[in-house]
Input
Amino acid sequence: MPHLSFEFSHGLGHQADLPALAETMRTALVATGHCPVGGIRVRGFEAVVDAIGDGAGGYHFLDMILRLGQGRDEATREAIADTLYGAVEDALRPQMGDTPFILSLEVQDIETRFSRKSWSTIHAALREKELE
Output
């Protein structure tokens, strides 16, 4: 259950191709080999209001939070984090140029006993596509 949310500074979408970036994130999660395709969710949210650094303006951020189902060991979580962060950095660096910017990522475990997901037809739909 890899769920990736990313929050970004107001106006970042004028400088960076955020829909393409979301696809880069999804592809990176798949590439790790540790994130089931049917469980991947990537979603982005613009911070309509933000105050960054000294407040002078002209700064941007993108903060990712990746929530993973329990059971992956530390080395696997670290490998997922490194792959994801590296892919996003590689995609954003050319777009950001000299703009003051910070990219961050935090990986969190979803505690299984408090997680509910009994209604899901995505896995079945993906299996059907594989059979076509």
